């Protein structure tokens, strides 16, 4: 289970926790930003639900509570995917087939991660909820579950857009002597949007929703695109630009938040459109 070091602790030894991507307020800003740019053909309550979506976007990190032992163990791998572990193989469109492939490659699925499936499964949940909404548009229970599923989905778009959630080098990398260097980089990036007060209004500026034709292909493309930004993360960190923000580091993290918001908005919009042609549940 991936870990990162946080703060000074007042217990023996060192406290470790599973790493979030962005702090909860960062996830919330991304979700609220996505809601602000939704098209008018989506339900009005959903377009107005930015604050609720922002809260629900934080739930997958709340589920890592140390006392929620069973949930924490099941949930943790959904936040990342170490693309190096795939060794050039394409992922199958099934969580359990992926786990079998990863095991065949001599890696542990819970250490490699399952982020693509968290994205797809929550996209499908939202699509099914939108299908119900089309039949009962004023049902408050259905409206509520649309917001819950969409908020959770946006959490994982945020994880996908954070480059260090696509690599083994998620919190430091090996130096020339084989020892880990730049430990702590993950927490610096996670906290950047909140510490630097990224507002939803800035994150969403100029974004427009787009229908995704092949969601699975889009998810995999998004993760591979995020992976390409890993060197830039380490370059900026080495320059101290996450400790003392610069225009370059702020622009870089803002761009990743905008990518996350665009991703969430496109998935929400596509789920809404797909729900119009979804067959009955049973």
- Please tell me the overall pLDDT: 93
> What is the end-to-end distance?
37 Å
User: Which strands sit side by side, in order, in the main sheet?
Assistant: 1-2
Class from secondary-structure proportions: mainly alpha
**What is the CA-based Rg, rounded?**
19 Å
Helix content: 55-70%
Shape: globular
Task: Output the number of helix runs.
Answer: 14
Biggest beta-sheet profile? 2 strands, antiparallel
The H/E string reads: EEHHHHHHHHHEEHHHHH
Low-confidence stretches: 1-17
Number of strands: 4
Our estimate of the beta-strand percent is under 5%
Oligomeric state: single chain
Q: Would you kindly provide a written description of the structure presented here, covering whatever features stand out?
A:
- The two termini are 37 Å apart.
- The longest helix has 29 residues, at 247-275.
- The protein has a two-stranded antiparallel ribbon. Strands 3-4 form a two-stranded antiparallel sheet.
- With 282 residues, it is mostly helical.
- It has helices at residues 24-36, 44-47, 50-56, 59-62, 69-75, 95-104, 109-112, 115-135, 140-161, 185-195, 200-203, 215-227, 230-238, 247-275, and strands at residues 4-5, 16-17, 173-174, 180-181.
- The model is unreliable at 1-17 (pLDDT under 50).
- Helix 1 packs antiparallel against helix 3, helix 1 (24-36) packs across helix 14 and helix 3 (50-56) crosses helix 9 (140-161).
- It contains 14 helices and 4 strands.
Structure, briefly:
By secondary structure, this protein is an all-alpha fold. It is built from 14 helices and four strands.
